[in-house]
Amino acid sequence: MVLIIHIPGKVFDGNWTLGAYIDQRANEGQMEALGTILSGQAGGIFSVLGSLIGTPLPPKQVPITFETVNGEHRVSVPGLLDMGSEPVPNPHAGGPALDTKVTDLALPFFSAGPANIRRSSTFSLTDPNLSFQHPGMSAFTGVFDFSGP
Fold first, then answer.
1. Is the pTM of this model over 0.85?
2. How many CB atoms within 10 Å of residue 2?
3. Position 42 confidence tier, pLDDT thresholds 50, 70, 90
4. Which of the pair, 38 or 146, is modelled with greater confidence?
């Protein structure tokens, strides 16, 4: 699953747009369960964030590819999303890439360990309902673990 959250201004001012792209291999039961979680009906973080989401886009079931090659993480949905992240370069010429693991973020999504602050090498979304490009911007990677009733 890939979640895209567009926050147009200050985080707690709301009016977020939420898009969910669920892998085409998900069965009907999995799709239904993810719908319950993302709508906030299962409790947890999405029940709290629900008041901030002004535009929930209908979920799309699509082919999703995720890979890590030479330290670069890439996610793609053909014809819709191309996203890659790379380590943050060292501002001192010739120095190693920065180790940017952080914990205790005010972002509740990274619930199973530290998040890695990275830089987007590419980030292009061409959904008819939400479209933007953000190459060279900050990116976070990490592990999350959501569960519900």
1. no
2. 19
3. confident
4. 38
